[in-house]
Amino acid sequence: MIDRPSAEELLFLPLGGAGEIGMNLNLYGHAGKWLMVDLGITFGNESTPGIDVIMPDPGFIAERREHLAGLVLTHAHEDHIGAVPYLWPRLRCPIYATPFTASVLRRKLVEAGLHLEAEITEVPMSGRFSVGPFEIELITLTHSIPEPNAVVVRTPLGTVLHTGDWKLDPEPLVGPNADEDALRRLGEEGVLAMVGDSTNAMVEGESGSESEVRDSLMELVGRFENRVAVACFASNVARLKTLAHVAAAHGRHLALVGRSFWHVSQAARENGYLADLPEFVTEHDVGYLPRNAVLMACTGSQGEPRSALARIARGEHPNVVLEKGDAVIFSSRVIPGNERTIGQLQNDLVRLGVEIVTDREYFVHVSGHPARDELAAMYRWIRPKIAIPVHGELRHLVEHAEFARSLQVSESVVALNGSVVRLAPGPAEIVGEVPAGRLGLDGKALVPLSGGVLRSRHRTLRNGSAVATLVVDGEGRLVAEPQLAAQGLLDPEADRSAYDETVAAIRAALEDLPATARLDDAAVKEAARLAVRRTLQAIRGKKPVTEIHLVRI
Questions:
Q1: Which ranges of 138-253 would DSSP assign to H, the alpha helix?
Q2: Terminal CA-to-CA distance of the chain, rounded, Å?
Q3: How far is CA 295 from the centre of its chain?
Q4: What would the mean pLDDT of 400-409 be, rounded to a whole number?
């Protein structure tokens, strides 16, 4: 296993975000130190019951944290900074971020009680600084959030461009355009490797501009007479600014519904991005406005059950309602894996008589990631020797690698989480593997998704659970009727005969035990456990997770 990289090598090691979209964690190794770029999360779904937040397992680098020089954050999206409040206590390294990203992260650290411990070094846009043996330069790009940065990592063995999330938007509405001059200069200087966004590597053309979305939403909202809610990503400050302009043009007030919108808008105002807009209406005041005088920005574009829009659709929101004749615009893309929850949300809205508009019916969203024409432009400017696709599922990474080769990039490596890639010296290649798992936030605890807790939970969901309580005397004879609970299997009233049959099987199993075995608690419990599982399998065709409580008096 790789421990400390030598001064004669430059390594790249993804622990998250390579082979998936979300929970990015990237490591660069050189001269005895590791540099971390981004530390993000993804979200749970029906395959992770009870788990809402998922993040990379940082075990490899946490065990070597004395060699971790620092964490550089490319931008403030959850899949790039969301794990910091959960995992920083295991790393305790310096954090570097531009002002807007720092503002968003500080709010998270306050909530986690870490704001006095985890110090953030603010770096100006286009800033240069050192992190251990790595010389860092930030290059401004455009994305669906303010201050997206490519990270230039310079070492004596070569320069790497880590693009982060990006696109080429000629009219981004918030923040400057991508710094094409800096990218061209970097290409002239010479770049060993580009580690790049693969999300839209299979999409032809260009991603589109935020200014085009503004024009389209301006026309669309004008069609509606009653309340209009727009579901979008809270981090998209440009979209929020667009909604403010659209609301004003149609005599409406823009209300923010969802805590994430307020956090992001406050961070944006602190850094001058929404300074020209009036204050937004709170969700508490929405009900006092006429239906034709309100435009609401709501969290919940991905159908998250606890989001503002989902609670409104279920009639559970304390302040906001949607009624027949109102409209909801989904101004966002569907993240793969969220189709089911979004479908449920939209069905709930339809039951209310709400009109729904998505990107299938109208132009209401542009991606924040580069399509193939933008990727081609970046490769023309940078001209790297090596392409390392990241931020994508395996199919995206393979397509990106093939596309890079078609653009005369001499080497490309498809590396998944845990793959150690040697960038220099010699040809780029995977030279080792390290453990790379996932952690889930289970209530207040972080648990391995591959661990026993989640395996048991899945078994319980599929097969139910059974608990039997036995009271026996010193010789192992029952002194009371066994008590049985079969959650998810038997209804206490409707399945009385099945209960009686299972209890009878427990009694018979204990009676069949030799006298010496009845003195052994483990033997008694195992006999009862097998009796419960076999009987319930015969009755229901299920093998439940079974536990026996034994009381000996």
A1: 180-189, 210-221, 237-249
A2: 54
A3: 28
A4: 97
Q: Taking the model in full, what pTM does it have?
A: 0.89
Say whether pLDDT at 490 is over 90. Answer: no
* Tens of pLDDT, residues 139-161: 999 999 999 999 999 999 999 99
Rounded Cα gap, residues 466 and 458, in angstroms: 15
Residue 179, token pair as written in the block? 């710094």
Tell me yes or no: is domain 210-357 CATH 3.30.559.10. no
487: Cα separation from own chain's centroid: 32
Burial of 226 (0-12, 13-18, 19+ CB in 10 A): middle
Residue the block writes with tokens 């574009």: 301
Q: Give the pLDDT confidence of 255-286 residue by residue, as tens digits.
A: 999 999 999 999 999 999 998 899 999 999 99
Q: How far apart are CA 210 and CA 218, in angstroms?
A: 12
| pLDDT computed for residue 1 by the predictor | 62
Dump strand ranges (E) for 103-251.
120-122, 128-131, 134-140, 149-155, 158-162, 193-197, 228-231
Q: 496 Cβ partners below 8 Å, 6+ apart?
A: none
Could you tell me if 386 and 196 are in contact, meaning their C-beta atoms sit under 8 angstroms apart? no
* The predicted structure's pLDDT at residue 9: 97
CATH 3.10.20.580 residue window(s) in the chain: 464-552
Tens digit of each residue's pLDDT (9 = 90 or more) over 319-368:
999 999 999 999 998 887 789 899 999 999 999 999 999 999 999 999 99
Q: Where in the chain is the domain with CATH 3.60.15.10?
A: 10-205+367-448
96 φ, ψ (degrees, to nearest 5): -125, 130
Distance CA 55, CA 89 (A): 14
Alpha carbon distance 405, 411 (integer Å): 7
> For residue 489, how many other CB atoms are within 10 A of its CB?
18
Higher local confidence (pLDDT), 306 or 238: 238
User: What is the phi/psi pair of residue 322, to 5°?
Assistant: -125, 140
The single-letter code of the amino acid at 386 is I
As given in the structure block, the two tokens for residue 361 are 């019916």
Pairing between β-strand 445-448 and β-strand 438-442 as defined by DSSP bridges = antiparallel
**In a 3-state reduction of DSSP, which class is residue 468?**
strand
CATH class in words for 10-205+367-448:
alpha beta
**C-alpha span between 349 and 356 (Å, rounded):** 8
Burial 81-117 (b: 16+ CB within 10 A, else e): bbbbbbbbeebebbbbbbbbbbbbbbbbbeeeebbee
Residue matched to tokens 């419990």: 525
pLDDT, tens only, 212-249: 999 999 999 999 999 999 999 999 999 999 999 999 99
State the CATH architecture for 464-552.
Answer: Roll (3.10)
